[in-house]
Design a protein that fits this description.
By secondary structure, the protein is an alpha/beta fold. It is about 45% helix and about 20% strand. The chain has a ten-stranded mixed beta sheet with strand order 5-2-1-3-4-9-8-7-6-10, with helices on both faces.
Length: about 325
């Protein structure tokens, strides 16, 4: 394969906590990559052209393959670059299970704390966008409720921080031992978000010395080696490439609960009511973890967009 077909392009912006998770993952692997900075709020025309409508951050592009959600990104990075591994112990399954909690319950709590505490200080357009994305249709009332209930929400964050501090209290460098793992990135992004975006974050985190020591260890990993790329060049890259062949694990699943098979036309959307546009395409590959949609675009040609199954709703197109 040419370098154009293997180069990692991350569509992100500096303030994104989930993008920070992936940037740390790239650092754990010591990888070189290109950074395309996308807008913090829609419209994001070049990003949605690649994805077919998905607007969340980050998105990874490799040639004409587009990987949505950090689940897909981390899984693909491990497949393509197995050493050093994201899974240095025999706990891979447990790490993935725990990551669903960090990405949903724990991150949801941190978002409610950060946005609720900010209140009217948030720019109106940002508040409307993130409020709808994280709190649903009744986001205004939900954000007011978060501010009123802030002490309770902080108590719900403090408990898992204390568990993490206990895990690290034996002096280990990372959560599983001497080597950084996927779970370090998958938890670090929440701590990074709390420290950087909420004035109460640093005082709260200071109560957990082992956690703060670990936080500095993860920060020291860095983000690998990256250079800036313009969004138009990323679009041209996708147009110049063709999607990679499927690897063995993406064959169709005869036991798929929804009966999904390659060739079906489907639409997919995150499983929260955030008012997001469904992405439509033809199933190219599907298994318990991932679904790959083939899309055709007049400017791009064929691209494949990869989504996780966990956390996403797939429906057949009528």
């Amino acid at each position: 394969m040419s370098s154009a077909e293997t180069e990692i392009i991350l569509h992100n912006y500096p303030q994104s906590p989930v993008a920070e998770k992936v940037r740390v993952a790239l650092g754990i692997k010591g990888l070189r990559w290109r950074s395309v900075e996308i807008p913090r709020i829609p419209p994001k025309p070049m990003l949605v052209k690649l994805t077919g409508g998905y607007r969340r951050t980050p998105v990874m592009q490799i040639g004409a393959d587009i990987y949505c959600d950090s689940q897909c990104i981390i899984r693909e990075l491990e497949r393509r670059h197995p050493s050093p591994t994201f899974f240095p112990t025999n706990d891979k399954g447990l790490i993935w299970c725990l990551s669903r909690w960090t990405d949903t319950v724990l991150f949801d709590l941190s978002t409610r704390v950060v946005l609720g505490a900010a209140g009217d200080d948030l720019p109106a357009d940002f508040a409307a966008d993130r409020g709808r994305l994280y709190f649903g249709p009744d986001w205004r009332e939900a954000m007011k409720s978060a501010l009123v209930n802030l002490p309770h929400l902080v108590s719900q964050i403090k408990a898992p921080l204390s568990w993490l501090d206990e895990q690290l209290s034996d002096g280990r460098s990372f959560l599983l031992g001497d080597s950084a793992a996927a779970i370090d990135a998958q938890i670090y992004f929440v701590v990074w978000f709390l420290r950087g975006r909420w004035e109460g974050g640093p005082p709260l985190l200071s109560q957990f010395p082992a956690l703060e020591r670990w936080e500095q260890n993860v920060k020291a990993i860095g983000h690998g080696e990256y250079s800036v790329m313009d969004g138009t060049d990323a679009i041209a890259r996708a147009a110049a490439c063709t999607p990679a062949p499927l690897h063995g694990s993406h064959t169709d699943d005869p036991h798929d609960p929804q009966g999904l098979q390659p060739g079906m036309q489907v639409r997919i959307v995150p499983d929260v009511d955030a008012g997001e546009r469904p992405i439509e395409g033809e199933i190219k590959g599907v298994n318990a973890e991932t679904i790959i949609l083939k899309r055709s675009d007049d400017d791009l040609g064929d691209v494949c967009v990869h989504f996780p199954r966990a956390g996403y709703v797939v429906e057949l197109c009528s």
